[in-house]
Amino acid sequence: MEYMIETKNINRIFPVTGGEFQALKDISISIPKGSLAILKGRSGSGKTTLMNILGALDRPTSGELFYEGVDICKYSDRQRENLRRTRVGFVFQSVSLIPMMTAFENVEFSMRLAGINEGRKERVEECLKMVGLGGRMGHMPQEMSGGEQQRVAIARALAHRPQVIFADEPTAELDSATAVAVMKLFRELVEREKVTIIMTTHDVGLMSAGTISYELEDGALKAAEE
User: Would you say 103 and 131 are in contact if contact means Cβ atoms under 8 Å apart?
Assistant: First the structure.
């Protein structure tokens, strides 16, 4: 089996007043290419800390992190930035769309950041249609529902054809029906775009929706199941 991401004994320690806090404890996981992986656990379990490390937004205190067999812990800051721009997409709980840009412009902006010029208009339209917003491309974020805004954010993360998309609690602010629709969309994107999606959730109703899941408790891996 080919793995998109593997970790070996990842630890993350933060300095705190009077000592240290160990947020992650010897985390070893393997996420296959083309899977929808769920990182589950209660608030404070270490999910977001692990997600930030997997997405090259933060560095582990110790351990190894492999992208397709290459340990990116050895990357320079510039190499990590390039990896985030070109091979990784992010979907955040807060959506974080640029309010003065239309849906089309928000998605296109991510392609500009990735340095993609050729076929940009066509790809933006393709991605917005893919998430069911073909008729809303010219709308501003404030003219859209929360679910529609999250779909724009997903299209934005997908536009530059990343190998992996990280989604941190992407359904936390959505109603249950919209959350289920977003999960269905994720599964369709995994199949259609051959992208690996890694998402965090504490919603028990969504924890079985992935193809593989890992559960965190107090910074440690509680269980893994495929």
Answer: no
Q: Which two tokens stand for residue 104?
A: 């089309």
Residue 94's CB is within 10 A of a number of other CB atoms, namely: 11
Q: Tokens standing for 97?
A: 């769309």
Closest CA to 131 of 154, 147, 109: 154
79 in helix, strand or coil?
A: helix
Q: Does pTM surpass 0.85?
A: yes
Between CA 155 and CA 133 the distance in angstroms is 9
Average pLDDT over the chain reads: 91
**Phi-psi region for residue 209, left (φ > 0), alpha (ψ -120 to 50) or beta?**
alpha
Which residues, listed in sequence order, are joined to residue 220 by a DSSP beta bridge? 25, 217
Are 150 and 133 in contact by the 8 Å Cβ rule? The answer is no
The closest alpha carbon to 220, from 27, 6, 18, 2, belongs to 27
Q: What is 157-170 written as a DSSP string?
A: HHTT--SEEEEEST
CB 144 within 8 A of CB 103: yes
